[in-house]
Amino acid sequence: MKMRRFYSFIVKNKYVVLAVFVPIFVLCLILGRLVSVNYDINDYLPKDTPSTVSISKMTEEFKGGIPNTRVMVRDITVPEALNIKEELKKVEGVTSVSWLDDAADIRAPMSTLDEDTVRSYYRDGTALFTVTIEEEYYIPATESIRELIGDGNAMTGSSVSIAATTTGTVAEISKIAAFAVLFVLVVLVLTTYSWLDPLIVLGGLGVAIVINGGTNIIFGEISFVTNAAGSILQLAVSLDYSVFLLHRFDECRRENVSTDDAMTDALCRSTSSILSSGLTTVIGFLALVLMQFRIGPDLGLALAKGVAISLVTVFVFTPAFILALIPLTDKLSHKPFTPGLHGVGKFVRRVTLPMTVIFAIVLVPAFLASNSNSYLYGASHILGEKTQAGADAIAVDDVFGQSDTMVMLVPNGSMPTETALSRELHSLPHVTGIISYVDTVGAQIPTEYLDADTLSQLISPNYSRMVISTDLSAESEETFSLVEKVRAIAEKYYPGEYYLAGQGVSTFDLKETVTSDLFKINLLAIAAVFVILILTMRSVVLPVILVLSIETAIWINLAVPYFSGESIFYIAYLIISTIQLGSTVDYAILMTDRYRENRQTLDKWDAVSKTVSDVTVSILTSGSALTVVGLLLGFISTNRLLAQLGIFIGRGAIFSLLIVFLVLPGLLCLCDGLVVKRPGDKSESIESNETEVLMK
Q1: Do 404 and 473 meet the contact criterion of CB atoms below 8 Å apart?
Q2: Which of 14, 149, 372, 559 could be a cystine partner for 153, CB 3.0 to 4.6 Å?
């Protein structure tokens, strides 16, 4: 009764509700533009990670920072290279530039210098400069350097990747959003009964998305993953709430003379399904908050908040919006474009048991394959060959080979210890050079003989700085092994007193962090969804069936890269399990609710046919939107991490839909005696029981 009174209040005061939402919408529209976006994956490592602590210490001690850019210039002489080095130093945001003259005395004949050292910086008339750019200047500095060196030359590094990702993603997301809205609009036109209904649904979703975007201001900044995927995922995930309410409203209008009463009845009847679906989605996304890698909490909180706002909107704003426009909606009504779906129900009835057998056969292999993939962890592979940054990276590697730079700080005070440390580091395979006081200047040279600029790059009041160059990429098993060896050697000479940072070091720490998150996140998400389903369905068997169905769809989705031999980003692998569970378990809930409702009057096989006919439009509307949104992100984004996440979302939605339509009905029939209460039971109807639990 309390629920009905609440909905009656909303319905009677529809114009007041709309008046309240308008200023909130406008305010959040403004605030959304003030939320900054972070495109650096490494910034989301835990603050106590060794590489994160090291970066903080280096920022305190040295102005130069960690080298993050390689600039390659072709067809130049040594004097010309020195001139370009000086020009690079003048670019705003560039804090340091290193070249051959920092590693060797180029006043001596080139033939007398160490060949490996020379070839690390200069070969066949091509020079390679190591540049450090401050984070806030990534975009303008890389643009200025590109203008300086010309299109025929190349630049690569984390600063280039972040700059390219920042500028490219904004345009790509706008394009994806436009296509997604257009597709959803077409689907809604086909599945609703008025030309105005699609605009009403999109209007309600738009209000929820804008409010969510504006309230992201509480986080200060959001990650590029959240910025790219958050809004379009909220659109796809929340679409079924509005569609289900609209379809229920149409049903109730045929039973009520008053549109206000019809809306109140529709809200009461749909509360259980919508709220249980929404709560499982929110809880699924909130599981990401437990990730140590902070992109998880960033994305999880934003998505959970977005779905919660969508629920509030669909129960408060959307009913008022629908009723305010009902006269115009009726004038613009049209006959349904979707054909009768009784044939679909009959088809599923015939194939569901064979499909359930196939489901049982593939379940274990899919689980094993999904956990046997090869992974990528860092940002070094994010941009593909089709982008300029990706092509430049290949061009630099073709001439100078792969390269990664580590920076080590050790306490001042003992030149012999630094010399011994440097000697042992030089002996490691893949270490191609070290720039430090003992290597570049010499331990026997007093610091008073150096100019202040050179000295400030090598020594601070408390630490000596060693820049270690390697011939490895920022991410490989050899890189990870080298990081471990360098840390072990440093620990031997300076136990607990050294700091080591660099892209390869951060990627190593990222690998260690995210791999420890998987079991914890998945277990919590499954357990939380399971508990919500027990409370809302008042059954233990049903949650097992529903969660197992969607988890199997997830395993099949993640098994595809294993069988195709594709390496996947571990971050996408980690996130998709929760996103697919949270966003597609709704379909299983709706199918199950309608099956239990139809079983009150029909035998189980007739109930299957009618249930599939009843829910196909609602589920396909939402499922097709999630599929298309994911695939659009996958095929349009040049950011390979976002693209892979998009493919996972789109493909995962397809697998979830197939299992919900073709397998779940069979599982419900096989377990019918355990999940359905017959008429005549002492308990109230299923719908009223669920609603009672939710209201308590």
Answers
A1: yes
A2: 149
* Amino acid found at 591: M
Q: Which residues contact 654 (CB under 8 A, 6 or more apart)?
A: 623, 627
Quote the tokens at residue 184: 């959803």
Tens-place pLDDT, residues 261-284? 999 999 998 888 788 778 878 887
509: left (phi over 0), alpha (psi -120 to 50) or beta: alpha
Cβ neighbours of residue 111 closer than 8 Å, sequence gap 6 or more: none
DSSP H or E segment with residue 352: helix 342-370
Please name the helix (run of DSSP H) or strand (run of DSSP E) that holds residue 238, with its range, or none. Answer: helix 224-253
Other C-beta atoms lying within 10 Å of the C-beta of residue 683: 9
CB 634, CB 370: distance < 8 Å:
no
Number of neighbouring beta carbons within 10 Å of residue 512: 15
Confidence of residue 64 (pLDDT cuts 50, 70, 90): low
3-class DSSP state for residue 669?
Answer: helix
* Mean pLDDT score, 168-184: 83
Count other Cβ atoms within 10 Å, centred on residue 309. 22
C-alpha angle 210/615/361, rounded to 5°?
A: 105
Q: Which band of pLDDT confidence, cut at 50, 70 and 90, is reported for residue 454?
A: low
221: alpha, beta or left? (left if phi > 0; alpha if psi -120 to 50): beta
pLDDT band at 450 (very low <50, low <70, confident <90, very high): low
* Beta bridge pairs of residue 466: 408
CB of 196 closer than 8 Å to CB of 302? no
Binned at pLDDT 50, 70 and 90, residue 339 comes out as low
Which residue type, as a one-letter code, is found at position 196? L
Does residue 684 carry a pLDDT above 60? no
pTM, two decimals, is 0.78
Q: Which of 173, 171, 146 is nearest to 160 (CA)?
A: 146
Residue 215: which of 318, 312, 319 has the closest Cα?
Answer: 312
Tokens of 246: 């609209």
Distance separating alpha carbons of residues 379 and 381, to the nearest angstrom:
6
Cα dihedral sign for 153, 157, 160, 161? positive
CB 590 within 8 A of CB 401: no
Average pLDDT, the chain: 86
CA-based radius of gyration for the chain: 30
pLDDT in the model for residue 693: 35
Which one, of 332, 20, 59, lies nearest residue 189 by Cα?
332
CA distance 485 to 511: 17
How does DSSP classify residue 219? G
Is the pLDDT at 378 greater than 80, yes or no?
no
Domain architecture of the chain: domains with CATH = 2-34+192-370+517-695 (1.20.1640.10), 47-159 (3.30.70.240), 388-512 (3.30.70)
Residue 127 CA to residue 423 CA, distance in Å, equals 27
Distance separating alpha carbons of residues 612 and 658, to the nearest angstrom? 12
Tokens 């008073």 — which residue?
Answer: 448
- With a pLDDT cut of 70, the percent of the chain lying above it is 94
pLDDT tens-digit profile of 278-298? 887 888 788 888 888 888 889
Query: If you ran DSSP here, which 8-state letter would residue 469 be given?
Result: E
Contact 572, 644 (CB under 8 A): yes
DSSP 315: I
